[in-house]
Design a protein that fits this description.
371 residues; alpha/beta; 9-stranded mixed beta sheet; 4-stranded mixed beta sheet; 13 helices; 36% helix; globular
């Protein structure tokens, strides 16, 4: 009996050794997706993927990435299935970093495509979303100055730009959370191809699932400021006595609150900023006295107020609650929120903003600290 058990265990061990690698898939058998674009097509959507080439030799992006393959289908899943057959390899989406919508898809409505991101097991919630100023495939084809992984450069552009008010980071998870809210709307970074690289040109503003307008770079700064996304940035001020003045945001704390007053929503924004005096056109920074410092601080405060109010007007014109006015109202005044959420677009259009900014210059550009 013991001999039989020992023989059985030996057979099981040999069988496990022989079949251990039967289901193994190597990188050379996979099409590793680094970026994806979605354009409109006659029968639905045209999906393009940027894949890694694990076998090609060479230098830069020609060796590893920049391989664009496109296929169309009634939906994203069907188009991806066709792409897998075209490439004769299984698509691996675990490395996908960014998904680009064309401006046409964005205007028609990205909501129809969000079902893929919700239901597909291959979709990841941290993939970044953006809108191309034109054709999405053309943007994905950018070589990014011969970068090793071009789509990764686009991600870095958005991540680094958001901190200074010149980019935006919006993930699939962020978008789905806004779509689930009865009042909140999304904004997505708007990119365009410039030569061999991509550039950030503003924000695509959405009402529901459709892009209704775009925000220029000035309004983009204001929108990101009100959302507390900006960590640094340069402000240009003007004064008759001092001329052009450059100040840099060293730190920025933003508080927001919504309430119903006199029958309409009021959105309050408070900004507390520490500044570094960077440049003064008329005179030397070392000779600037406290009176001039106070003048510059008041100018900076007014500049930030203007940025907030201008950006808020841009959002209202687009019907895009991209600063979560409704969501904050729901927390601070549930009864008031219940009264207006059924027709939130009208309530948001009639709302007002009250912005208050406090600035203090704490550093000079030679890195000396103000007493």
């Amino acid at each position: 009996m013991r001999r039989t058990i020992k023989l059985l265990l030996c057979f099981l061990l040999v069988a496990a050794t022989l079949c251990g690698c039967s289901g193994r898939r190597t990188l050379s058998n996979l099409a590793v997706v680094e970026g994806m674009s979605i354009d409109r097509a006659a029968n639905g959507v045209s999906v393009s993927v940027q894949t890694l080439n694990m076998t090609k030799s060479g230098n830069g992006s020609e060796a590893l990435s920049g391989n664009i393959t496109a296929e169309s289908g009634t939906g994203i899943s069907q188009a991806l299935s066709k792409l897998s057959k075209d490439l004769s390899r299984n698509l691996f989406l675990g490395q996908n970093k960014i998904t680009v919508f064309s401006s046409s898809v964005a205007r028609h409505g990205v909501g129809d495509n969000m079902d893929y991101f919700v239901r597909s097991a291959a979709s990841r919630p941290d993939v970044l979303l953006c809108v191309a100023d034109g054709n999405a495939k053309a943007l994905l084809q950018s070589k990014e100055d011969d970068a090793l992984v071009p789509s990764a450069n686009m991600v870095h552009l958005l991540q680094n730009g958001q901190d200074s008010g010149m980019g935006a980071v919006v993930s699939v998870n962020d978008a789905l959370r806004c779509f689930a809210s009865p009042t909140s709307d999304i904004y997505l970074p708007l990119l365009k191809r410039v030569g061999t690289h991509t550039a950030f040109v503003g924000l695509a503003l959405f009402d529901g699932g459709k892009m209704t307008a775009t925000a220029n770079m000035t309004d983009t700064f204001g929108i990101l400021l009100m959302n507390g996304k900006i960590k640094s940035g340069l402000l240009t001020l003007q004064n008759d006595k001092l001329g052009h003045i450059g100040v840099e945001l060293v730190s920025c704390k933003v508080g927001t609150k919504s309430a119903i007053e006199n029958g309409r929503s009021v959105f309050r924004v408070t900004v507390q900023a520490q500044l570094m005096l960077d440049e003064v056109q008329k005179g030397y920074i070392s000779t600037i006295d406290n009176r001039s410092i106070a003048v510059i601080e008041r100018l900076a405060e007014q500049k930030l107020v203007d940025l907030c109010t201008g950006a808020y007007a841009c959002l209202q014109a687009a019907g895009c609650d991209g600063v979560q006015v409704g969501a904050q109202l729901a927390m601070s005044d549930p009864a008031g929120y219940a009264a207006v959420k059924a027709d939130w677009n009208r309530a948001f259009s009639a709302s007002v903003i009250q912005a208050v900014c406090h600035c203090r210059i704490t550093k000079i550009n030679d890195n000396s600290i103000r007493e």
